[in-house]
Specification:
Layout (H helix, E strand, L loop, with lengths): L2 H19 L3 E2 H17 L3 H13 L7 E2 L1 H7 L1 H8 L19 E6 L3 H10 L5 E6 L2 H11 L3 E6 L7 H11 L6 E5 L4 H10 L3 E4 L3 H23 L12 H15 L3 E8 L2 H8 L1 H17 L6 E6 L2 E6 L4 H16 L2 E4 L2 E4 L2 E8 L6 H17 L5 E3 L8 H12 L1 E7 L3 H17 L3 E7 L2 H5 L2 H5 L3 E6 L7 H10 L4 E7 L4 H10 L3 E4 L4 H14 L3
Parallel strand pairs: 3-4, 3-5, 5-6, 6-7, 13-14, 15-16, 15-17, 17-18, 18-19
Antiparallel strand pairs: 1-2, 8-10, 8-13, 9-10, 11-12
Helix pairs in contact: 1-4, 2-3, 3-5, 5-6, 7-8, 12-13
Protein name: Diguanylate cyclase
InterPro entries: CheY-like_superfamily, Diguanylate_Cyclase, GGDEF_dom, Nucleotide_cyclase, Rev_trsase/Diguanyl_cyclase, Sig_transdc_resp-reg_receiver
GO molecular function, one term: diguanylate cyclase activity
């Protein structure tokens, strides 16, 4: 990227930072700024940039009175940013559609470069990637694993190369099983690329080489998916290993919360497996394990999951299945597997399995609760001679002593909904809520929603329990003020906090008039946010 274009980008960045510190700007001011950018572009011989600035001015005709936030203005100028970043060799190169495709992934954007990140988001509307942004390298190094990204893109400015936080971020990423990091810099010198690789980056790319950036990120994500698959796959049997179990439960618990559809967990154990190993050898035992794994995969649905739990034990998780349906499936599997022949080292073996079955109907219970119940049922099946299916005994009607122990916990349980389209914001606020709950010795249920419509359609909203609801001011599908108005009209017992980047006093007054309990502006002052949130949570007990 040549110096003139870099200087123009710096000028736009400075103006954006001023807009962030000011009240909302009007369309006339935005048009004047685009006009100034166009004149500068013409002077430095960038006619395509000047033409795009002129087109944006025409788009603003009739919108001179409209109020724009800094973020809205930034998104409006994404086409202009494309012209700036796609200069030189990339200016005439359209990124192939194949480069825009790829696996679903979570991308963490790090660094104080909102222009480049807005460009990246805007240039990839068809890629199934979810973006979250952290402007601070220090914050990214400290919290990257909370977000569980598939790739990190770091925009590195000149002063960042010597920042210890950059080295710390790359070092922490290297401690992960595999978490690729791509450094993007306007500095195209070879020495800077070498420095980036020496620090531990997986790729170091010039900001103007957009086609290379997209392809490299896509390929790194694909590589990570393959490596994750190896780590999560049992080497002997080819099915998932135990590490995958929490992921399955998280998905099925979400189905239960959203639609009320239970799932069933079955813990299977091969009968008399030790005798197989002792009599025919461990190679024969391995053949039996592979046979059972292949049989289960072949005779279960694509929505079901087969996991090797350890040794000769397997978990079969039947999605959106009632207990009676699961019982019928397992009985069929048990009968058919008993007729399967396993050939091992010249011997032909017939084996059976036993299973403990539990219906997972309560999303508030942890994974270990269901595993414990299934294990008890499996033990009962084994004690009864094996080659049978036993159902777990439900513990809702446990002893009176247990009920007394549980009651205080239920009364001390907080409930919080976070409604924000930014996944990273949801994650950070959820961590703060858990911290406050731990301080008070409380249990807490946290539900996260990408938009207001999904919140209204959720069991959380239908339950109407006393709760804290945290709303982003600007959301897709439904305006937060509209959602707030509906909550107050229906007299839902919610304490509502609104988060916003708008600092206009009129906007704040409008939200307060609609009934918001707390109003916090971005960027957050975390101590202030924590204090306000603590107050709302305490009011749930009033």
């Amino acid at each position: 990227m040549d110096r003139s274009v870099a200087s123009l980008l710096d000028r736009i960045h400075e103006q954006y930072e001023r807009w962030r510190a000011w009240p909302p700007l009007d369309g006339a001011e935005l048009a004047r700024f685009f006009n100034a950018v166009g004149r500068t572009a013409a002077v430095i011989g960038r006619s395509h940039i000047a033409a795009e600035a002129e087109r944006l001015i025409h788009r603003l005709n009739g919108q001179t009175e409209r109020q724009w936030t800094a973020e809205e203005a930034l998104m409006e100028m994404v086409p202009l940013l494309r012209c700036l970043y796609e200069t030189g060799e990339a200016a005439s190169a359209i990124i192939p559609s194949s480069h825009r495709q790829g696996p679903e992934a979570a991308i963490l954007l790090c660094g104080n470069d909102p222009l480049f990140f807005a460009y990246v988001r805007g240039a990839l509307p068809t890629v199934p990637w979810r973006f979250a942004t952290l402007p601070s390298l220090e914050e990214a190094a400290a919290s990257m694993f909370h977000f569980h990204p598939d790739c990190i893109i770091v925009s590195v400015k000149e002063k960042d190369w010597e920042n210890p936080a950059l080295a710390a971020l790359l070092e922490r990423a290297g401690q992960h099983s595999y978490l690729p990091v791509v450094l993007v810099s306007r500095d195209e010198r070879k020495a800077m690329r070498v420095k980036g690789y020496d620090l531990g980056a997986d790729a170091v790319i010039a900001a103007s080489a957009v086609d290379e950036l997209f392809v490299r990120v896509r390929r790194l994500i694909e590589k990570k998916k393959r490596m994750d698959g190896v780590v999560l796959i049992d080497e002997l049997t080819g099915v998932y290993n135990r590490k995958y179990l929490p992921r399955v439960y998280a998905r099925l618990r979400s189905d239960l919360e959203r639609s009320g559809a239970p799932s069933c967990l079955a813990l299977l154990d091969l009968d008399h497996f030790k005798q197989v190993n002792d009599r025919f050898g461990h190679l024969a035992g391995d053949a039996v394990l592979r046979k059972l794994a292949a049989f289960l995969r072949q005779h279960t649905r694509g929505t079901d999951t087969v996991i090797r739990f350890g040794g000769e034990e397997f978990v079969v998780w039947l999605a959106k299945t009632s207990k009676s349906e699961a019982r019928a499936v397992l009985e069929r599997l048990r009968r058919h597997f008993a007729a399967e022949k396993v050939e091992a080292d010249g011997a032909v073996l017939l084996c059976t399995f036993s299973a403990g079955l539990v219906e997972c109907h309560d999303p508030d219970q942890p994974l270990d609760h269901w595993l414990r119940l299934a294990d008890k049922a499996l033990y009962a099946a084994k004690r009864s001679g094996g080659n049978r299916i036993e159902e777990a005994v439900r513990e809702e009607n446990g002893s009176s002593d247990e009920a007394l122990r549980q009651a205080p916990t239920d009364r001390r349980r907080w409930r919080v909904a976070i409604v924000d389209d930014d996944e990273l914001v949801r994650m950070m606020i959820a961590d703060l809520v858990r911290k406050l709950a731990n301080e008070q010795g409380r249990e807490v249920d946290i539900d996260e929603f990408r938009d207001g419509l999904s919140f209204l359609e959720s069991p959380f909203y239908e339950s109407g329990r006393r709760s804290v609801v945290i709303l982003d001011r600007v959301m897709p599908k439904m305006d937060s003020l509209e959602l707030l108005y509906r909550l107050r009209q229906e007299r839902k017992p919610y304490k509502v906090m609104m988060l916003t980047s708008r600092q206009d006093e009129r906007d704040i007054a409008h939200a307060l008039d609609r009934g918001v309990d707390e109003y916090v502006t971005k960027p957050f002052k975390w101590l202030e946010l924590e204090a306000r949130l603590r107050r709302l949570l305490k009011e749930l007990d009033a």
